[in-house]
Amino acid sequence: MMAASTSGNILFFYFTCLLGNHGAMCLKLTNFDVPNHVDMGSSATLVCEFDVDSAALNSVKWYKDEHEFFRYVPNSPTANTQSFPLTGISLDNIKSDKNRVILNRLTYNSSGIYRCEVSTDLPDFKIAYESKNLTVVSFPRWGPEIANIQEHYTVGQVISGNCSVAPCHPKPKITWLINNHMVDRRSVFVNFENHDDGRWLTSAWSTLHYELRAEDFQNENQAVQIVCRVSLGGIQGTELENKFTSKLLSKKSTQESALQSLRNSGGNYKHNYIQQLILMTTVQLLVLLILPKWTHTPLACHVNGLMVH
Question: According to the UniProt entry, where is the signal peptide (predicted)?
Answer without folding.
Answer: 1-26
